[in-house]
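Retry 2 of 3 after timeout on previous attempt. Resubmitting structure tokens to design endpoint.
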């Protein structure tokens, strides 16, 4: 039996695989039959441009194979990379565009191909409307349905907050780990610990010795979220932020969030500013904001933070998928 929707995955990172799982599950909860075309992971190559090319070729091969066996009513490509070499047009799901995420030689072939794919796609499904605005892409509203990544608490609220702070820095330069460590060195008191997820001790050594820092390496999602539930503060200073999923997860788990503003869609930033606690600051004020967050009293923060992420919770996202995305995909 042919599926309603063929989801052409990319799955090149754990975060992307999780986002693809969420989209497929939400469509299925809306009563839509979904088949996934999952590419075989290519070998590692040296440049971003070549990395995108080998993944695009793998996604094309997976899509072709799936289309030969059954014809879906609609095709959704997960990321513009998955759509770059598409065998036929379809909707495109994305967080950020190569137009801004692949500057200079890093996007030498991706940017022009992306423009053509965005123009030809029957539907665009960004995780945040800011991704289109940032790239200067003008699209008729009937061709766009914004579907965020769902965020839920990872466990029961009210546990012990025995860790001072945590940050997520799988891409240390992009996530501004050097800025975070400098702020931590200035703000830390004896006995306090910052856990750096996504960076192991060997990688962390490149940043020099900083007291009270534990490099936890790459963690499974459940292990990572368990640490977030134990932390008082999530701190980050990104040089660019595409969505801010880690920040939203921290809010959902009752953690205070300290951040600098950053270029990019940064869907979490308006939420953080709306909470109004003064923890969105410029880099020069990061250490002071971090100290203030660490010392902040328990004033019902967890409840306020969870309420603030309500538009990103699974029930809200499911409503958008059922009421807007499914008709846009299937009633054409």
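Retry 2 succeeded. Sequence:
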């Amino acid at each position: 039996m042919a599926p309603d929707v063929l989801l052409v995955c990319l799955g090149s990172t754990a975060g992307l695989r999780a986002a693809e799982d969420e989209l497929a599950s939400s469509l299925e909860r809306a009563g839509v039959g979904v088949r996934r075309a999952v590419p075989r992971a290519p070998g590692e190559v040296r440049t971003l441009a070549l990395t995108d090319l080998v993944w695009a070729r793998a996604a094309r091969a997976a899509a072709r194979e799936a289309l030969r066996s059954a014809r879906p009513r609609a095709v959704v490509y997960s990321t513009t990379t998955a759509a770059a070499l598409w065998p036929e047009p379809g909707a495109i799901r994305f967080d950020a565009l190569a137009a801004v995420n692949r500057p200079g030689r890093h996007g030498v072939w991706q940017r022009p191909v992306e423009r053509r794919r965005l123009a030809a796609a029957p539907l665009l499904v960004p995780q945040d409307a800011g991704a289109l605005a940032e790239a200067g892409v003008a699209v008729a509203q009937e061709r766009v349905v914004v579907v965020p990544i769902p965020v839920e608490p990872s466990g029961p609220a009210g546990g012990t907050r025995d860790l001072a702070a945590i940050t997520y820095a799988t891409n240390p330069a992009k996530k501004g780990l050097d800025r975070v460590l400098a702020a931590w060195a200035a703000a830390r008191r004896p006995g306090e610990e910052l856990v750096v997820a996504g960076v192991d001790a060997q990688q962390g050594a490149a940043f020099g010795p900083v007291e009270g820092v534990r490099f936890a390496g790459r963690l499974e999602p459940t292990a990572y979220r368990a640490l977030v539930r134990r932390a008082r503060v999530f701190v980050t200073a990104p040089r660019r932020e595409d969505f801010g999923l880690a920040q939203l997860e921290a809010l959902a788990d009752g953690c205070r969030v300290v951040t600098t503003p950053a270029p990019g869609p940064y869907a979490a930033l308006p939420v953080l500013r709306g909470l109004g606690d003064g923890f969105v600051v410029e880099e020069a004020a990061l250490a002071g904001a971090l100290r203030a967050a660490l010392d902040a009293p328990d004033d019902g923060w967890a409840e306020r933070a969870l309420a603030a992420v309500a538009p990103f919770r699974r029930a809200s996202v499911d409503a958008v998928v059922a009421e807007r995305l499914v008709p846009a995909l299937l009633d054409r």
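Attempt log closed. The chain has two domains: 5-150+313-330, 163-309.
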